[in-house]
Fold these 4 entries.
Entry 1:
Amino acid sequence: MRIFGAVMLILSWLTAPIFYFLGRKKANIFLPPISNPILKLSITQLARKIRRRELTSEQVVKAYVDRCKEVNPLLNAVVEDRFEAALKEAKEVDQLIASRSKTQDELEKETPLLGVPITVKESIGIKGMSLSVGSKLRENIKAQIDGDSVRNLKSAGAIPIAVTNTPELCLCWETMNLITGCTNNPYNLSRTPGGSSGGEAALISSGASIAGVGSDLAGSIRIPSMFTGIFGHKPTPGYVSLNGHYPEAIGEDFEKFLTIGPMARYADDLKCMFKVMCGKAAAALRLDEEVDLKKLKVYYMENAGFSFVDVKVHSSVRDAIRKGVKHLGSVAGCSVKKVCINELEGTAESCASTFFNMKNIPDLMSMANPDNPKEKKNVYVELVKSIFGLSNISNAGILFTLLHNSNCFIPRSKKDYYLKENDDNLKVFQNLLQNDGVFIYPTHPIPAYYHGQFRVKTAGVMYTMVFNTLGMPSTHIPMGLNSEGLPVGFQVAAAPNNDRLCLAVAKELETAFKGWVPPPSK
Ligand SMILES: *[C@@H]1O[C@H](CO)[C@@H](O)[C@H](O)[C@H]1NC(C)=O
Ligand SMILES: *[C@@H]1O[C@H](CO)[C@@H](O)[C@H](O)[C@H]1NC(C)=O
């Protein structure tokens, strides 16, 4: 696997000029500025104003629909919209509020998101909306039910306005597929917004959605959040129901590694969305309990340790970590300590092994022949066909299948060894963090790269993947833009069930460093 990593690294140097050249056409296109002030209010502010009739839900939904229509031709993030239906639902909300059949307190308690528009990653499922999840092999398939997390949000009064783009079956860290195509990064259209929740990230960061629902199997919430400078939370598994998600999470490993979580522009909204998405299960996480930062222990690492095959951590990411940690220590009063967890250097292998040995990973090669699933397509034939645009399976899907088939070049016989290593690593973290510690670590070693570069930069996902295989909660925190105008930030993880510690650190750093900043415009 390390040899594979080294080959990738060399390829990434050699191919850099090609990607730069391919990206240059889109490099100097800017989004229109966010001019409607409604688009800069948080969910809490919007919901309060709607309840008090200072704003109508119709005005708010219309503002977001208009912004979607304005930026989507540049971003290509929407798979299917429900703008008309959403505006109709908004009018019904306004009528309900005007009828005064409930007091404002009742409305807040029963429906904290009443009248607020949201977006949803296509794979989560909204009844009647597209559930192709970027796969030609699933074209025109519609969701039969609302995913549980969406249902909880709807019951709280939220109004979904669109389902958003993903790579084929969410099996990539870039958002491009053969149905909707390639989604662009609002901060530089020549770059990817990351994936797999890339459509969400592009819309939220460009002010075309206030918050949304993403899913994270190996960084799919946190990497797009990092690439577009928004907040994203990968929860402790087991609190947000996975029901309705495609690919379905079947089996114990899958249910542990895959989590559905919130993505948002403002830290408060992240918590607000998360609480609603959990439903009744939220109580056990004590999300409303005040976190005393003076009693919080902050541990951090600036990179995974030395390995010549890793994607090197960019200086702007390292500086963001130093800035954040310094503030937490000297202003917020946390105790701060740089640590060296040697185990993390080996997580590339233990994560990849644990991950690829997960049962029920969707197999695109047998899906291509649904009538005769035993007759699998040949992955190498599909690879050649895809180079000439003749395959129904995306290039990313094929590369993923190759990695899966080869078990990422790790001998399958070592599965138990790495499973044990994974368990041992969780114990290391639990001992270190207990219930009053967090761990700060790069979300991804580099800011958003050019479209297509995932092919040579995949090794960087070990930074996010480790918290999926360990089942730990982790929040991406945006820390502004670097000198190239690209968002940077880092993740803060905690021991299982301590999601509230991650969210408290996100809030503190947003207050100190402003969190999300709008994309450049001309
Ligand atoms: C996008 O990136 C390219 C190449 O790095 C750069 O030349 C261009 O100025 C950037 N565009 C914006 C809008 O920042
Ligand atoms: C792709 O799918 C379409 C419709 O499902 C089918 O007609 C076509 O033959 C397929 N193409 C290939 C190359 O398999």
Entry 2:
Amino acid sequence: MEFIDLKSQYSVIEDSVKERIQQVLDHGKYIMGPEVEELENRLAVFSGVKHCISCANGTDALQMVLMAWGVGPGDAVFVPSFTFMSTAEVVRLVGAVPIFVDCDGRTFNINPQHLREAIEGVRQRGVLIPKVVIPVDLFGLIADYDAIELVAMEYGLKVLEDAAQSFGASVNGRMAASFGHAATTSFFPAKPLGCYGDGGAIFTNDQELASLLKSIRVHGQGSDKYDNVRIGLNARLDTLQAAILLAKLDVFPEEIKARQLIVENYKAALMRSIRLPLIPEGSVSAWAQYSVLAQSEAHRTKLMEALKQAGIPTMVYYRKPLHMQTAFEDGREHQGSYPVSENIASRIFSLPMHPFLEQQDIESIAAVINSVEA
Ligand SMILES: *Cc1c(COP(=O)(O)O)cnc(C)c1O
């Protein structure tokens, strides 16, 4: 059994992927070829946002937005403590300080009340200036932007949606990557919409930000290729990856639907010795991961071991919250405490999740889980 099954997906899209790749080989425009713009236009329409700027990966995407906003030394950027490294790493890369915020115990997303407390704490200490919050749509579930945007507005913060795991998700019909002042996503192969290498994109309705990002993407380019007006990056998306994404985008909406069905089947088959993910009313997750909570760390170890014995792969996202990582030791004087993240990190694990998971697979996974006592 595969944790994420890219081979079955390839067997469905093989012809169109090969055709798209062949077209790139024929025209030879490997850097910023026509597929890049075609993809950007289609992704903008898909997410319901005016501008899509593709780039090299989801980490560069985050960093580019912070660079465009001029975030740097002396600035505080609020990020969830329970997320992937990139979200906080980019804050350090631009010289600002990541301020971790505890997550909600049911959705695993940033807790808006804790966000408010963290901003208040930074203001009281008076060393850093609160500038940006980067909510993450963890495991594919869109964060609570209604509440987050209220807090952000009150304190004058910009909101950057990290939609690396949620592309394809929606809330009452509004698509992921359309929240906040800007949003980013990743096309890392294992993400809901993945390419066959690294890739990413930025989404915004802000025309000025979009032109800045296009300049930053190519060494701070000005009016022509050898005019450099700012410090930028080399952060373009390869034409070949854009071509692959165009082929994958054709089947993507069906895959998102298939994932919902698999979740329904998981819900029906799994008994409640583990806690299943909560999806608020009106929300459709992209199900980057199907993450469940064991009753304790020991229970998780037992479950994962039993599944492994049965040939069923599982993963732990994330075993160590970011505030506990050595890389962020230096900012600890600015930090609070994160009991929810720490509790979740000790109990969470992810089951196989991809659009090609069979009912039979789900039944064998459930049989193992249901037989393990807490
Ligand atoms: C994967 C991921 C990223 C980074 O994407 P890359 O394309 O691997 O650089 C950023 N944030 C989150 C939450 C992610 O899961």
Entry 3:
Amino acid sequence: MKKTFFTVGPSKLYSTVPAHIRRALEDDILSLSHRSQAFQEIFKNTVASLKTFCNIPDGHHVFFLTSGSEGMERVIQNCVSEESFHFVQGAFGEKFHRTAVGLKKKTALQSAKNKNDFDTPVPQTAEAVCFTQNETSTGYQAPPEVIASAAKRYPEKLVFVDVVSSLPYVDLDYRAIDCAFFSIQKGFGLPAGLGVIVVSPRALERALALEKKGLNVSWYHSFGQLLKYAERNQTNETPNIMAIYLLGKIIEDMKAVGLAAIRKATDDRARRLYRFFEENSDRFSLPVVDPVLRSRTTLVAGVTGGSAPLITKLKEQGLVVGAGYGTEKENQIRVANFPAHTDDDFERLSVALQN
Ligand SMILES: *Cc1c(COP(=O)(O)O)cnc(C)c1O
């Protein structure tokens, strides 16, 4: 039976991925040199497509990394000399914080399970405020307006946003964000193996200034190196050429659908599934109490009596949902609601959940 993956990443592939992979093979994309003109065209097209699709300002830079986790390390390593501040709603926010600790930064962490937790003052000495816009482990989100208001409140601090499991759905004002990073195996419906970071001119400047002073120790993916190669539409290393190619192709396909239509479909499916969980409160619970903080792209529900039997039953019908994360593994399910998913997928899921 053909399975439909509702797992939160890797997840269901975008429908056109197999055709693009075949085309890449036919066109010898996978044997191209990463110093060739043909590769530079691919690099340039993917960056340009991403910028127009996500409304990223011209002056912002797009660099390729290997993963979302690398994004956490690079933003701290490149832009923070001493201290970062972290709003944390689950395991990925904790990982972001731990990354800063691992890089020997002074840190402070604020748990944000209520909307007004985001009003907690950020210490004056913190150089950066870090958000996990969509917390895949717990199904919380940091609403875009919360991030925008922090940017306004702390104009001198850098704002870093993990958008690994919310792009391209989430509508961010990149003019107010210094670094945003993601990987492609979640909302873009692609195989894993590529990270992307969007860097503001100000963040780049900060990184280059720290590098000059010798305060940030990194080389291979320092912003200076990333910039040097990106200016030639290249990467320092031999990159995941197939992934860079596929990302550009998938964005063009998503553009044909339209980001407004993708966002509306995502909102509608999320609303229907949350309503279903609410209407079946004998069997399901919603751990994120405030609807404003509920993720639209990775939905989490508690399952009365434990989630394992339900996950097994769904799997028998070809519907693969995620287990809960960490200590909630046996108690919750997680359901991805990415652009690759269709209304029909969700209809089949909700019928299966009803029985
Ligand atoms: C998956 C995920 C990551 C880690 O991304 P990788 O590409 O697996 O390194 C980071 N943050 C969030 C919110 C995620 O969902």
Entry 4:
Amino acid sequence: MAFIPVNEPRLPANAKTYLNQCIDTGWVSSEGAFVQDFEEKFSYSVDRRHGIAVCNGSAALEVAIAALNIRAGDEVILPTFTIISCAAAIVRAGAKPVVVDADPQTWNMDVSQIEAAITPHTKAIMVVHIYGLPVDMDAVIAIANKHQLAIIEDAAEAHGQNYRGRPCGSFGDISTFSFYANKHVTTGEGGMVLTNDNALAERCRSLRNLCFQKSQRFVHEELGWNFRMSNLQAAVGVAQIEEIPVIADRKREMGQQYSRHLSSVSGLELPLAATHYAENIYWVYGVVLADDRSETAKDVMSALAQRNIGTRPFFWPMHEQPVFKSVGLFKDVCCPVSERLARRGFYLPSGTALTDKDLERVAYTLKEVLK
Ligand SMILES: *Cc1c(COP(=O)(O)O)cnc(C)c1O
């Protein structure tokens, strides 16, 4: 049986046409016209005035933190159950990450724990929509307004997803996306920073481009990065903009199919189909082994690998990362829900190239392994 990878993207035919235009015209760098086109079309699709394309989603988070002037002495609240990029951006800026645990149902940050984490040093709340369900934004916005905190919204897993009918990525003072190959929209590698604030947008553009100055190009008032996106990448991105609703529909359909196949398996917790504010878009289809099962996620993942099926473990919580522990962060932090998710959860092949037949084979094989 052929190997089924955990993610295989499917790109529209237009991508080739646009890429060829870059090659034929020689416009391959970030100066090419597709970059601005992609910024305009993507930001429009998430209802933001400005889009600043960057080289990946981790860079987008670094730019967001720097643009908000978050630095030593500041604290940022974020979920512990997320990717390292979120905490890394905060730590690299010299600020302190303060984590909250996950909600056991949605796997998103438990918004009821945010207020207790606020101190006089708190500058921002970084929300991350995890695996397909959005964070409960109304609750976050109320807290942010009450305490005058900025919201950084990491929507890297939520292209095409909505919260109460409004696009994910439209809630942050600054929002970020990734266009890595396993995201709903991909440029291979890529990312974007989005905002409605003109001054913040200007700052993000400068930070992405080494803080070159208009008047005296090679005289710098501030240090930036070369985080630019190339025209080749943007060309592939532009080709997918109109596909976003189609991709979202397909992801929902795949998630629902997995749930239908797996709902009868005992000792397997499946993702929520919906909350009162959103339907799951199943960026990835995650499953969690119930505590009464003797296997760990690792055991089941290796059994699936032996049967030629790729999987990925869930995120490892930020407060359990050796790299942060070694510098004295997160002493005495305990987040039991995230610790359990990390050990009991993993996700199944979820890329848009997955066929219904492949999906059936994955579900069937998982059932066999868990028998
Ligand atoms: C993928 C991802 C990122 C990082 O994006 P890269 O483009 O891989 O750097 C950041 N945040 C979340 C939530 C992600 O899923």
